[in-house]
Design brief:
The structure is a single chain. The chain is an alpha/beta fold. 33% of the residues lie in helices and 25% in strands. The protein is built from 10 helices and 14 strands. The strands form 3 sheets. The chain has a 6-stranded parallel β-sheet, with helices on both faces. It has a 6-stranded antiparallel β-sheet with strand order 9-14-11-12-13-10. The chain has a two-stranded antiparallel sheet with strand order 7-8. It is elongated. The two termini are 17 Å apart.
């Protein structure tokens, strides 16, 4: 997939393009329906499929409290490529860009830059200054300027609307099983392993690989989860604690992963951690001995769950997104 990181990078080369626009946070099953339709229609036209998105997310710029992201831009690009899209334009979103009118966006970006012949959007999408670029506006523009507009209906899974808002709610509740159904994959956090307090192995007996959350990252319900850890292309079982270490009187938010059957030095290395199932809330223990005893129980339960789902998890670790 060809990636353009600003509008000026697009200098022709497009013809008969089928375009979609959106934030695509999480690239969930609803988004995947949209991408599938774009790719299919581009193929029928013997043209190219193009997705247009924004970084940072517009609400991070326009709203004081911002928005927490299910997937960062790196993850989003990986997932969109897996959906079969030919090219992606990532527009840097600023307060200045927010003043762009919907008509200018259609004329200069979609038509002139991308050579759009058809636009595919979700049922509730709107863009441009004051969100004037709604479905009605787009259909009027299409009729006047010679491009087709296709609207993809809302996608439901077992009577549940698949949406980024619903997935954020499930993650806040720690319901990773339900979130996985709507995402089409496990919720994943990733990053470089940080040097922590190093008490996991020395004091508690369970060494951990520590990750820090970025300010814009969505932090799921605090507590302990069964996890799947991908490091150097290999997949391991584990447990992860997301919290603030109340037993040790700390306050910084960290994600500490104990990886099963693993003893490598991976400080500074990138890892990916799939959160599979919530085990328990984080709580303060009387001391190290009580904490270690509880972690031992967590490990046993996590290994039981991983064993039950071994076939499914082996397949999921083979996915391109997890390699």
């Amino acid at each position: 997939m060809k990636i353009y990181n600003k509008i000026e990078d697009v200098r022709g080369g497009f013809s008969n393009t089928c375009v979609t626009i959106g934030n695509f946070d999480g690239v969930h099953l609803g988004h995947q329906q949209l991408f599938g339709e774009v790719a299919r229609r581009a193929q029928l036209r013997k043209g190219q499929s193009v997705a247009v998105t924004f970084d940072p997310h517009p609400l991070q710029v326009l709203r004081p409290d911002g928005i927490k992201l299910i997937s960062n831009c790196e993850q989003k690009l990986e997932l969109v490529e897996m959906a079969g899209i030919d090219a992606m334009l990532v527009i840097p979103f600023t307060k200045e860009f927010a003043t762009t009118t919907a008509e200018y966006f259609v004329d200069e970006i979609l038509l002139n830059r991308l050579g759009m012949k058809e636009l595919v959007v979700g049922y509730d999408y709107a863009f441009g200054k004051n969100r004037a670029g709604n479905i009605t506006f787009l259909k009027q523009q299409g009729k006047a300027k010679g491009f087709e507009v296709t609207v993809v209906d809302a996608y439901y899974l077992e009577e549940t609307l698949v949406s980024s808002t619903q997935i954020r709610k499930l993650l806040a509740e720690g319901d990773m099983v339900a979130a996985r159904r709507l995402l089409g994959r496990s919720y994943q956090i990733r990053g470089e392993v940080q040097l922590g307090k190093q008490r996991g192995g020395k004091e508690i007996g369970f060494p951990t690989a520590n990750l820090k959350f970025a300010e814009e990252d969505l932090v799921p319900r605090l507590g302990v989860y069964v996890s799947q850890v991908i490091c150097d292309g290999k997949c391991y079982g584990g447990i992860i604690n997301i919290g603030r270490n109340p037993t040790f009187g700390e306050h910084a938010l960290v994600a500490e992963t104990h990886i099963f059957d693993f003893n490598q030095d991976i400080y500074g290395k990138p890892i990916k951690v799939n959160l599979l199932k919530f085990l328990r809330s984080e709580r303060k223990f009387e001391g190290v001995k009580e904490l270690a005893a509880q972690i031992s129980k967590d490990v046993v339960e996590a290994q039981r769950i991983l064993s039950q789902q071994s076939k499914e998890l082996t397949i999921s670790c083979g996915d391109k997104f997890n390699q």
